[in-house]
């Protein structure tokens, strides 16, 4: 009698329902794979997500080294004003750069220690920063313009800025005001 019930239920399923059931059963057979439907042909394709994930290099240490040391750092060292008279201005610019690379971590949050290292940030962040610096070198090489770009970059990402003592804060604000003229 139970066999009769199953056959009646099976008879009530349409061809489309049977196809859906087969697809659902196939999708549960293997873990780490995903079934997709090709929009052009309508065929089912199986994607091994784990193989693709493992085969994709997320971060390339050599590229990160080049981006940071031969790109970002070298351009800043070469094109920011040198000497003791400009040290405070350079430090303010470096602070904005480091806040961005460290995704908002500031030294002022932890009594002078950032607790993060910008050299180990994500490559897309390094690329974004390098583009800004390269554009600055090509356009103006005015340190106030670079400060404004980095300041605005941190604003767009909602990272905030370093909190300085009143004298350094006045210098940072003056740099920002000069760049906007």
Task: Name a few traits of the molecule.
181 residues, mainly alpha, 2 domains, two-stranded antiparallel ribbon, 2 strands, 6% strand
Q: Please, how many helices?
A: 8
Low-confidence stretches: none
Query: How many strands, which pairing sense, and closed or not: the largest β-sheet?
Result: 2 strands, antiparallel
Span between termini: 90 Å
Approximately how much beta-strand content do the residues carry? 5-15%
Overall pLDDT metric = 83
Class derived from helix and strand content: mainly alpha
**Order of strands across the biggest sheet?**
1-2
> How many structurally independent domains?
2
- The percentage helix is 55-70%
Number of strands: 2
Rg on CA atoms, Å: 28 Å
Order of helices and strands: HHEEHHHHHH
Q: Which quaternary structure do these chains form?
A: single chain
Basic shape: elongated
Structure description:
- The protein is 62% helix and 6% strand.
- The protein is mostly helical.
- The protein folds into two domains: 2-55, no CATH class; 61-179, no CATH class.
- A two-stranded antiparallel sheet has the order 1-2.
- The mean pLDDT is 83.
Write the layout of secondary structure elements.
Layout: H1 2-12, H2 15-29, E1 33-37, E2 44-48, H3 49-55, H4 61-79, H5 87-101, H6 123-139, H7 143-157, H8 166-179
Antiparallel strand pairs: 1-2
Helix pairs in contact: 4-6, 5-7, 6-7, 7-8
Task: Give a quick precis of the structure.
With 181 residues, this protein is mainly alpha-helical. It has helices spanning 2-12, 15-29, 49-55, 61-79, 87-101, 123-139, 143-157, 166-179; strands at residues 33-37, 44-48.
């Amino acid at each position: 009698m139970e066999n009769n019930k199953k056959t009646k239920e099976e008879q009530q399923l349409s061809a489309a329902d049977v196809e859906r059931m087969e697809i659902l059963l196939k999708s549960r057979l293997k873990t780490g794979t995903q079934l997709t439907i090709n929009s052009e042909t309508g065929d089912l394709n199986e994607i091994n997500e784990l193989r693709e994930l493992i085969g994709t290099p997320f971060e390339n240490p050599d590229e990160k080294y080049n981006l940071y040391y031969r790109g970002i750092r070298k351009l800043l060292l070469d094109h920011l004003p040198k000497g003791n008279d400009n040290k405070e201005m350079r430090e303010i610019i470096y602070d904005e750069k480091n806040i961005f690379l460290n995704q908002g971590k500031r030294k002022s949050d932890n009594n002078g220690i950032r607790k993060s290292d910008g050299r180990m940030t994500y490559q897309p962040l390094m690329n974004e920063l390098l583009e800004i610096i390269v554009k600055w070198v090509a356009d103006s090489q005015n340190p106030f313009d670079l400060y404004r770009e980095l300041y605005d970059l941190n604003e767009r990402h909602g990272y905030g800025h370093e909190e300085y003592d009143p004298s350094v804060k006045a210098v940072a604000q003056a740099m920002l005001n000069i760049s906007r003229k």
